[in-house]
Amino acid sequence: MIQLEKIFKWVNAGNNRTFLLKDINLTINEGEFVSVMGPSGSGKSTLLNIIGMLDEPSEGSYHFLGNDVYKMKEKQRSQLYKENIGFVFQAYHLIDELTVYENIETPLLYQNIKSSERQAIVADMLDRFNIVGKKDLFPSQLSGGQQQLVGVARALIAKPKLLLADEPTGNLNSKQGEEIMELFRQLNQESGTTIIQVTHSEKNAEYGQRIIHLLDGRIEK
Amino acid sequence: MFKNYLKIAFRNLWKHKSFTLINITGMGIAFTATILLAMTAMNELTFDSFNKNKNSLYQLYIETHRPNNTETNSTMPVPLTPALKAEFPDIVHISRYGSIGGSTIRYNGKEFSKLIRTTDADFLRMFTYPLISGNKETALNNKSDIVISQKSAEAIFGKEYPVGKTLNIKIHDEWKDYTVSGVMEDAPLNSSITFDMITRFENFPNYEPYADNWSSSTHDVYIQLNTGVTQAAFEKKLINFIHKYYKDDLEQLKKDGGRPDADGELLRLKLIPITDLHFSPILNTGGVSRFYAYLLLLIGAFILFIASVNFVNLSLGRTFTRAREIGMRKVMGAGRRQILLQFWGESFVICLFSLLMGMLLARLLLPYYKTNFYQAFSTDILRSPQLIIIFAAGFLLVSILAGGYPAWIMSALNTSQTVKGKITTGKNHRLRNSLMVVQFVLSGLLIICTSIVWQQLNYMRTKPLGYNKEQIISIPIGNNIGQERALELMRVQLAKVPNVLSVTGTDINLGRGRDGSTSNSVIGFQYKGKTVKTNWLRVDYDYISTLGLTLLQGRDFSRDFGTDSGVVIINEAMAAEIGEKNPLDANLDLDGSHLQVAGVVKNYHFKSLHKEITPLTMCIRKNWTLSYIFVKVKPENLPASMDAVNKVWHTVNPKAESQISFLDENTEKQYRKEERISKIFISGAVLAILISCMGLFAIVVLVIMQRTKEIGIRKVLGASVLNITTLISKDFIGLILIALTIATPIAWWAMNKWLQDFAYRIHISAWIFLLAGGIALLIALVTICIQTIRAAIANPVKSLKSE
């Protein structure tokens, strides 16, 4: 599903070139649940953003579902992204002005799905996450765990094949964190969604089938 | 999808109420001002264009090339019209147009005063003044036919059907019966031609004696050309006509040494397109230059622009605080176009509300605006497609720019960074700053112009005119009493009033009285082989002493010399014109006699200060009808004297229509145009600076919000309130100083141009610029400081926590 070859990412600060990622070669197959670990500044988030097409490397190639991402036209890439990738953030990043329902609905709007169909999909999702009763609340009225639940629901609404999570439990207490991780495992096993998560916690990393350790922009081992 | 955008827009606007309020109020006020100004300008610019034949209608005028100047005159001799009609098949319709002014009309024992115009039958065919009843082809077939306006019909006949009724009308001291042959719609407010009633030109005073007289010009002439004929081509054709009918005048001009025009002609008959009538300086109605209409549009555009800049800057500032949202939407798959649309939706909503508020306010303010700025005004203008297109285009442009531009920049930024809220806003300050500079350039311009216009107006009001204007009451005599008799009676009656010092009469008012009329009488004659032109003024005994003019040489008119009609008194300018060493030796061939110069008076401003003092000749000759009585009263308790004089006047002439007034009121009225401009300028300047400062205020709030952390850290490090206020203010003060530097030369150039309109004008001095700049700066500084000081005295612990 994902093939990264010779990925380099650097930034120039004055005369010094600081490498964020160095020679990353990585293959991830469909249905995998991968955890990425490493100390602060090791390039975990950068890697995730590159996989999620939010960022581009300075060098290297990336194939996603057989498509050479960097040779695609902007429009096609955006289409590929919209249909296949969902994102979950540490700080939830819900849109404050929208209700729970509308937050979850928004990705569908950007895919031009019809109103009646949207309603059905969102209702389904609310049901599945047990948040039907909260659908008209605004993010500020929810607890952190509930907000992240909405964040996950939003990431999954368009039925992506790949779910990317950047420290999804970082702002949650351990019990809330566990719930989210259980949800991830269930997703991976029941729906076959590929999941890549960045985490600091050994315990959460164990939920994945494979752990990738990053240090100073390189994959260890 | 669009519904969703709107919903988000509403929620966002509601959440940030203060910004929304500033935006909507600012834009709303700007829209109000622009709507009113644009309506006024459109009304001016569309003068006379309601005529269906507007592209082929013209007024005739004669251009005389004299040795020293070129003179234009739109009055024509009576036989010209039949001659033109006979010679040129290109003329579809032609009509003479003679104004009689106020005439008395009797119907069923009641008297009315109406404006009667005399025209040829073609008049109704060429102009678009539709008849409500009657037939426009035949309505002026008979000499006794009269067509009346709807308003007059209602006033005179009430609910009666007017057509076929007989009116008894006094034209030129002669009562005659006229039959109403039609009722026409009232002329639109933007019609140069105004009338209450129209009758045939044969009823014009002195029609018959002048029917073959080519040397006496008494009325205007309008023509309608064949659609294929251009103005230039027809003017060329008229050259031969002039050669044929104006032989004598041409010879005289040649003798005088007149300077021919580009085609080698000394005398030309030319055309003014009807749509230029309102603006033409050729006519004695004194054209209002199109410049003023464009000035209004410009000021309107300025104000709208200033408000739009606020809008753009605020949206820009706020968009950066909304970077995360934009990033998040992109993560969720939003394309650039969709983000643009969403932000445009928000600005569209604001614009829409502002426009609605603007229209509502304009509607409410209209009566006030009409009484204070501009009366002649119909709201039909609002239906003009041009105006609607301009507004729609401006509306879209503003909303796209304000909403779209910031979103466009934001959506181009790297997604992963915007999601984290990590964006540098440095680059975009350049746009914001340049917009603010332009905003303050415009505000500065308006403030400077306002002060200069005000100064000039004040100068004109207070400049000594060479005569006493405070103590003199001017009485318009009117037509319903014998003029000489009225003066005599007044002299006798007022002798008993203790406050009255002296009484005299004249044919031309000073300034513009409550009767609203001005006239001008210029006579040209031969003096020792050269043509001399002079203003001609009928006066009466005691004129010079009543007005307080200074007699430099010779004597005043005096009853000791009988009627004293054989002599004239001239002003210094006239003495210089005739160039005699002793002007009292001069004998002038004027008004059909030899008139001896009896005295010379010091120059005084008998016309408005727009004009240089020109030669003037005064006489007491009864063939020139008196029109005004001047009464000089004691300086104490002027209102009481006014009442006393008014009472006496009404016993002398119980039917008097026009109100009497002091001369200083009359002279003020001459500067009404300037007063109007100054009012518009002042309002424009106040609005501009107000809206600019609203924007400035909001920007400062934004900047402080963005720099809360920096301010907190600085305070922890020991910065004082003054340090921090200076830190935040200095950028803005710098911008305003730049703006004022740019505005100064532009304002200087523009106002210098405007002042060229006045023969007597102020000098623009540097302190005006310093003062205007100082005011602008002070207002801005206060605006900035209110916010910064608040931020500076806030507890740093709080502001640091918020990060």
Automatic annotation (TrEMBL), chain A:
Q: ABC transporter domain location, by residue?
A: 2-221
* Keywords from the named record: ATP-binding, Lipoprotein, Nucleotide-binding, Transport
Q: Which Pfam families match?
A: ABC_tran
**Cross-referenced PROSITE patterns:** ABC_TRANSPORTER_1, ABC_TRANSPORTER_2
This entry's Gene Ontology molecular function terms read:
ATP binding; ATP hydrolysis activity; transmembrane transporter activity
SMART domains recorded = AAA (SM00382)
User: GO CC annotations?
Assistant: membrane protein complex; plasma membrane
CDD domains linked to this entry: ABC_MJ0796_LolCDE_FtsE
InterPro entries (alphabetical) = AAA+_ATPase (IPR003593), ABC_transporter-like_ATP-bd (IPR003439), ABC_transporter-like_CS (IPR017871), ABC_transpr_LolD-like (IPR015854), MacB-like_ATP-bd (IPR017911), P-loop_NTPase (IPR027417)
Report the domain of life of the source organism. Bacteria
Gene3D superfamilies documented for this protein: P-loop containing nucleotide triphosphate hydrolases
What family does the database annotate? Belongs to the ABC transporter superfamily. Macrolide exporter (TC 3.A.1.122) family.
Q: What is this protein called?
A: ABC-type lipoprotein export system, ATPase component
Q: What is the lineage of its organism?
A: Bacteria, Pseudomonadati, Bacteroidota, Chitinophagia, Chitinophagales
Automatic annotation (TrEMBL), chain B:
What Pfam family does this protein match (any one)? Answer: MacB_PCD
Q: Which keywords, in A-to-Z order, does the entry hold?
A: Cell membrane, Lipoprotein, Membrane, Transmembrane, Transmembrane helix
**GO molecular function, a single term:** transmembrane transporter activity
Q: Where is the ABC3 transporter permease C-terminal domain?
A: 298-413, 684-796
Q: Coiled coil located at which positions?
A: none
Decide whether keyword Membrane is in the record.
yes
Name the UniProt record assigns to this protein: ABC-type transport system, involved in lipoprotein release, permease component
| Organism lineage string | Bacteria, Pseudomonadati, Bacteroidota, Chitinophagia, Chitinophagales
Reply yes or no: does the keyword rRNA processing apply. no
Topology with respect to the bilayer: Multi-pass membrane protein
State the organism named in the record: Sediminibacterium ginsengisoli
User: Per the annotation, which location comes first and is thus the protein's main one?
Assistant: membrane
Cellular component per GO? plasma membrane
Domain MacB-like periplasmic core stretches: 20-239, 470-643
InterPro entries, per the entry: ABC3_permease_C, MacB_PCD, Macrolide_Exporter_MacB
- Annotated localization: Cell membrane
Q: Which PANTHER family match?
A: ABC-TYPE MACROLIDE FAMILY EXPORT SYSTEM PERMEASE COMPONENT 2 (PTHR30572:SF18), MEMBRANE COMPONENT OF TRANSPORTER-RELATED (PTHR30572)
